[in-house]
Specification:
By secondary structure, the chain is mainly α. It folds into two domains: 139 residues, no CATH class; 170 residues, no CATH class. It is built from 18 helices and two strands. A two-stranded antiparallel sheet has the order 1-2. The protein is globular, with a radius of gyration of 23 Å. The two termini are 33 Å apart.
């Protein structure tokens, strides 16, 4: 990350600080990135996505700088610097500080906020550094969902017919492997029944159908890190004509509100933008209300918002 903060600052402003001060600010931000977690990374992401300075963060950086550099004059940062530093802290946290599930979840939070940018990074500072933070969730799932369905069921009959078979063979690796396969098969079976249900549904409004379908898929997938190809899931229930349909974000949200679609959790994450517009009566920003989403595109966005809510509820709830 050496020189990255300087690079970010140079993209947006002629910095009034020399390299020595910028290096000290880098050290300050690196120290602050250590305390970034899944529960508080929203504040940093929201700042640079919405292009709004976090005034509390600005004061925290100034105070931390004074603490770490007591001989220097007090530093008062321009508001724009707080936005840049929020982006820098996000990059450092996801790239080098957060690991495993935490990194994957933070990456998903970032991706969900990108609805506001509607897939465009052009207004972000050094957007390549942001896009490199995507898809950590996919990598995490690929690493963890290693259960293969072999089709062999040597122990199935005994498991079903003998009440104590599992406890008596607890240390048998083949038995445990087969039980895990059976659990995964159960999820896939439920998923197929959901697919069949919504494949035949031609009555519900299109975006309501997509929402309720993916809500059930996420809800019934009891292990949230099971591999899912959301695009393929959508193709299995959408006709060719449905795939071509699109609507504005404002129109989609209105359709979902009218249908009173299910709320996944009482509290909603900051980056679940569509869910908040539907369930919290939160005003849709003027910048995106008229932007259009294809049916499958909406499905991808809402799937990952629902998935994030499930992950937070499962692993990060109080």
């Amino acid at each position: 990350m050496e020189g990255l903060l300087q690079q970010l600052l140079n993209e947006v402003v002629v910095t009034p600080y020399n390299r020595e001060i910028t290096d000290r600010l880098t050290t300050v931000c690196d120290a602050m990135a250590v305390n970034v977690s899944v529960k508080n990374i929203d504040r940093h992401i929201a700042s640079f996505v919405f292009n709004r300075p976090d005034w509390d963060f600005k004061e925290e950086v100034e105070a931390k700088y004074a603490e770490m550099n007591p001989e220097d004059p007090a530093l008062v940062l321009p508001p724009l610097f707080a936005i840049v530093m929020s982006q820098y802290v996000t990059i450092v946290a996801i790239t080098t500080k957060l690991q495993g599930r935490d990194q994957a979840t933070a990456s998903l939070i970032l991706m969900n906020y990108m609805l506001y940018r509607k897939g465009s990074l052009t207004r972000l500072i050094l957007p390549n550094h942001i896009s490199e933070l995507y898809y950590k969730l996919d990598a995490y799932i690929a690493k963890n969902d290693t259960i293969e369905i072999s089709g062999e069921q040597k122990h199935m009959g005994a498991i079903l017919s003998t009440p104590n078979y599992l406890t008596e063979h607890y240390n048998d690796e083949d038995v445990r492997k087969e039980v895990r396969e059976m659990a995964k098969m159960s999820i896939l079976y439920k998923r197929q029944s959901i697919i069949e249900k919504y494949k035949e549904d031609r009555e519900k409004p299109l975006f309501v159908k997509i929402y309720e379908y993916l809500y059930e898929i996420v809800k019934q997938t009891k292990w949230v890190f099971l591999k899912n190809d959301v695009k393929q899931l959508l193709l299995q229930i959408l006709s060719d004509d449905e795939q071509k349909k699109q609507a504005t974000i404002e129109g989609i949200v209105g359709e979902l509100i009218k249908a009173e679609v299910h709320l996944p959790f009482v509290e909603l994450e900051g980056s679940s933008l569509l869910l908040k517009y539907v369930h919290r009566d939160e005003k849709i920003p003027a910048e995106i209300k008229s932007k259009r989403l294809m049916a499958a595109e909406f499905g991808v966005y809402i799937y990952y918002e629902l998935l994030l809510e499930n992950i937070i509820g499962e692993y990060y709830g109080d």
